[in-house]
From TrEMBL:
It comes from Altererythrobacter rubellus. Residues 69-96 are annotated as: Disordered. Residues 80-96 have a biased composition (Basic and acidic residues). One of its GO terms (molecular function) is sequence-specific DNA binding. Pfam families: DUF1153. The lineage of its organism: Bacteria, Pseudomonadati, Pseudomonadota, Alphaproteobacteria, Sphingomonadales. Transmembrane segments: none annotated. This is DUF1153 domain-containing protein.
Length: 96
């Protein structure tokens, strides 16, 4: 794990701003925080499963949702330069 030898998992979770336990509303942002914490080895997958009562399939779903959101953010529908050119001409945006 990434946390220091003298730090326990509870302290690492607090430092990362992760929820303390499973008894919360799981927003997209909170799910992403847990997925990132596991991917960055801040907490182990087993620790996340135990603390948040997650099944393997539920965690995999969260990962897929996070990856899909990141893919949408990274891939714009049109290049910014083309959008600016269209707007400068007073035209409507073309679909890519």
């Amino acid at each position: 794990m990434v946390y220091a030898p003298n730090e326990n998992v509870t302290d690492a979770i607090k430092r990362a701003g992760l929820p303390r336990n499973h008894d919360i509303h799981w927003s997209k942002a909170r799910k992403e925080e847990v997925v990132q914490a596991v991917r960055e080895k801040l907490i182990s997958f087993d620790e996340a499963r135990w603390r948040y009562l997650l099944s393997h399939s539920e965690f995999r779903q969260w990962e897929q949702q996070v990856d899909a959101r990141h893919a949408q953010k990274v891939t714009p529908k049109q290049p910014l330069e083309l959008r600016n050119r269209e707007l400068a001409r007073g035209g409507e945006l073309e679909e890519a």
